[in-house]
Amino acid sequence: MLSEASIDAGQSQGREREREADPVVARAVARMAAAPCRSWTLTDLAASAHVGTTALVDRFRRATGHSPMQYLRRLRMGWAMSELAGSDAPISAIAHDAGYGSAEAFVRAFRAHTGTTPGRWRQTSRGRTLIEANPIAATAETMAPSAMAAAGP
Fold first, then answer.
1. What is the pLDDT of residues 102-148, one digit of tens each?
2. DSSP, res 73
């Protein structure tokens, strides 16, 4: 019996072949992959693939299961996740480099994509817990409401 993971893997491989088989989608994917952090619009992508926006969206969904902009967000998030794991660059710089207008917008998109914040992702990707990353800030004494009240404003 096939597991859900193997079914998902099979669907993913099938979509990979479809994406490669559709030259319009392949062109758009290549453009996005070459410059994922560029401020792409659907109109830009469609023009680079030499089709209209409706045709691009239809063909893209059929080939990948995602809209072009969803695919772009996944590319950007993959890049950002790699940067967070491998560099000490500030999250605001990674947000900007990933094509987001603000760190706040990036954090919201990152959380929606991964279920966690970029800072937490960075810590766990490096095998560190919150306490290991910042032991003073994460101690029970500083986290307790009575300690916060005693510290005052």
1. 999 999 999 999 999 999 999 998 886 545 544 454 444 444 444 44
2. H
Nearest Cα to 37, choosing from 105, 94, 84? 94
Instruction: Tell me how far apart the alpha carbons of residues 85 and 107 are, in angstroms, rounded to a whole number.
Output: 15
Q: Are 51 and 23 in contact (CB under 8 A)?
A: no
* Rounded average pLDDT over 84-108: 93
- Contact present, 95 and 102 (Cβ < 8 Å): yes
Average pLDDT over the chain, rounded to whole?
A: 79
Give this prediction's pTM: 0.67
Instruction: For residue 33, give the nearest of 45, 15, 42, 46 by alpha carbon.
Output: 45
In the 8-state DSSP scheme, what is residue 51? Answer: S
| Cα(60)–Cα(48) distance, integer angstroms | 14
Other beta carbons within 10 angstroms of residue 60's beta carbon come to 27
